[in-house]
Write a structure and sequence with these properties.
α1 (about 65-75) crosses α4 (about 120-130) and α4 (about 120-130) packs antiparallel against α5 (about 135-155). The strands form two sheets. A three-stranded antiparallel sheet has the order 1-2-3, with no helix packed on it. It has a three-stranded mixed sheet with strand order 5-4-6. It has about 170 residues and is of the alpha+beta class. The chain has helices at about 65-75, 80-95, 105-120, 120-130, 135-155, 160-165, and strands spanning about 10-20, 25-30, 35-45, 50, 60, 100-105. About 10% of the residues are buried. β1 (about 10-20) and β2 form a beta hairpin. The termini are far apart.
Amino acid sequence: MHCPFCRHEETKVTDSRLAGEGMQIRRRRECLSCGERFTTFETAELVMPLVVKSDKRRVPFDEAKLRSGMEKALEKRPVAREAVEEAMWRIGRRLRSMGEREVESRVLGELVMEELHHLDEVAYVRFASVYRSFQDVDAFRQEIEHIRPQRRRRAQPRPALAAARRVEAPKERK
């Protein structure tokens, strides 16, 4: 790396440590020519695919737009910021793991709806109403009916867990 003070090509790393919650490396460097010290931060460059809109335009993936849409759906809902950040991270990971240079906006919308469904059902319906362009109350009703069976399945305890939770009453002694 070139020295920012004298532009000399050779510097040496004097210290390295994790920064930014482990997502960056902070390095202290010293110029071998002028002796000045400076700090650099190194982060992984994770290339996100282009988003292909419904009109076939290709736009760069915009994390801020994704966050804004999710936060709008989650407005005034009891969901922790950490949970939203984890959902954003999972969406990004899934997009990168597809290994595609382009992804249709429809696919991105479905990933967001899946994450919102796990975070908060009200936020899910809010997002779905805009994303799927609900035209009337019946469209809302159909979406709610669609998620109700999934909620019932999640609410039913698994047989093994139900058995483990049962507490037997103490037997009477004679």
